């Protein structure tokens, strides 16, 4: 859609951000687009992990193996994880907005102020100024990790991130092409200075992947000065069709009794899932029973947090025969639950590791080969529903997981042989 230069609104994302809605800080922290797909996914997981304590704690920690599993990455390759963390520490985040009093504020910070790996734990921190901006939900929208795993290109995920935070306003506002190139990580390339190349190799493929893969649909619009395209914006709306194909890995977890008890106690969805993942349902159920039996507790959630994160043990009492029998029954139930959960977790690890191997294999193919691979795979799918799901989600299609793994085992025999034991 063409727009005359006079039609360009005043809410440009450079210079003074003058529109009233900008005072609500809808605009923008811009992160350099020169991140690999792995680095971009890693950045989102780190932010999600730290979000609840982003302002209150200067440092954050996450188990390195858990971190790798959440981004679908082989946790044995420590060197690549180090490189990805180093890249985040070297990446610049920049903001330019108006504060609540209408004063312009510009700032710049490294995306991570530091990161370290020690004893299987990843510790990291944000600068105080950046943490304040990232914690404001009006400025930065947390990315759904189930959605980000479906992206197979860095440009697609970068465009999704930069559009998703504007979903409530319905438009990104106008971006000068120089800013857009920087967001996509192609600034400094003479090839992409030509709009024809930028449109064909970056804009169109990224828009197609966002619309096929994510929970939003975007439409690019361009503004010209004379015959030259100078600015771009994206109209945004929710993808109503995504719910037909949505598969949430946390659905089973959210349906459990322990999750329901945590929610009833007032624990947030994010924290409940984090605790269950870290401590297991049996341990949390035990602590919940203990907290429930304590009189006069003013903050049950705080008490439970201390019991879990402080490693407090439930005090022992002289047991009766009935109590011993009940304890034995609970222990047997706990062991069964742990065995079932271990089996489910092993399956999840296996699937994530295989999808990561497929993603790596696809990245090694040239565009012609990738197109041929997709056509060949589609020709083998009999179900219209499964074909549509693959068209939307590509090689990250969870509904077609078994077929995808079989296809790539045929294409590259032994592709999954080097995966770590327990990961597939």
Automatic annotation (TrEMBL):
Keywords: Coiled coil. Pfam families: Rep3_C (PF21205), Rep3_N (PF01051). InterPro entries: Initiator_Rep_WH1 (IPR000525), WH-like_DNA-bd_sf (IPR036388), WH_DNA-bd_sf (IPR036390). Residues 22-163 form the Initiator Rep protein WH1 domain. Residues 329-356 form a coiled coil. Belongs to the initiator RepB protein family. This is Replication initiation protein. The lineage of its organism: Bacteria, Pseudomonadati, Pseudomonadota, Alphaproteobacteria, Rhodobacterales.
